[in-house]
Design a protein that fits this description.
alpha+beta; five-stranded antiparallel β-sheet; single chain; Jelly Rolls; 10 strands; globular
Length: 210
């Protein structure tokens, strides 16, 4: 137990020297982002609306090549998250839908399935593979920066919510980076060991050039 004089010193220090840290840093979306995130709004302009986001209740548009939709609640959609190191998304996957191999360079992810079934997995840096079919109420974690995926399985569309330990986790989809970009086909063939016909077919499907 600390001596009483020392306890009194700590108490008096806390009274005389309050923390200078702000309670929050609501994003000012009218200003450009910085490496540290958005600049803070003036506290006098902050309202309750900055701390509430109502965009995850509706199904996302899955009318696309992967039959999946991500509805984000990052700091650019949800200003109150700025600086807090957290964010979330809604994931909708139609029957036969897939979220291809991708990474989040700036965050780890926890996925919660709320409807249907999703086969999800990731590949470690030592090329070990971890995957499992998740059902309603199941959680899975994807460590930061590792390649991972989600595939709808079962007889109905799937819904899940993911949280990240960053207000802007970043995203890079491997197939789009390779075949939806302007990286020359010869280079893609060299780094993927695919032949010319396969590369050009995938570039045509995903909108790549070169």
């Amino acid at each position: 137990m600390l001596p009483i004089p020392f306890l009194l010193l700590l108490l008096s220090s806390s009274i005389l020297s309050p923390s200078s840290a702000a309670d929050f840093c609501v994003a000012d979306l009218s200003l450009p982002t910085t490496p540290a995130g958005f600049s803070c709004k003036k506290e006098s302009t902050v309202t309750i609306s900055d701390f509430v986001f109502s965009g995850l209740g509706a199904t996302g548009n899955t009318d696309n090549i992967i039959k999946a939709a991500v509805t984000p609640a990052f700091s650019s959609q949800f200003p109150g998250l700025n600086g807090l190191g957290i964010s979330t998304i809604r994931l909708d996957i139609e029957i036969d839908g897939v979220v291809p191999l991708h990474t989040h360079p700036a965050a780890s992810e926890v996925l919660l399935v709320t409807q249907g079934a999703i086969l999800a997995g990731f590949i470690s840096s030592s090329n070990s593979v971890y995957y499992k079919t998740l059902y309603e109420g199941d959680l899975m974690v994807f460590p930061q920066g590792l390649l991972h995926f989600q595939v709808q399985c079962g007889s109905s569309p799937a819904v899940a919510f993911a949280t990240f330990n960053s207000p802007d986790p970043g995203l890079q989809i491997t197939s789009l980076s390779l075949f939806g970009s302007s990286l020359p086909s010869q280079l893609v063939e060299k780094v993927t060991f695919l032949d010319d016909a396969q590369v050009k077919k995938l570039k045509k499907v995903l909108g790549g050039t070169g």
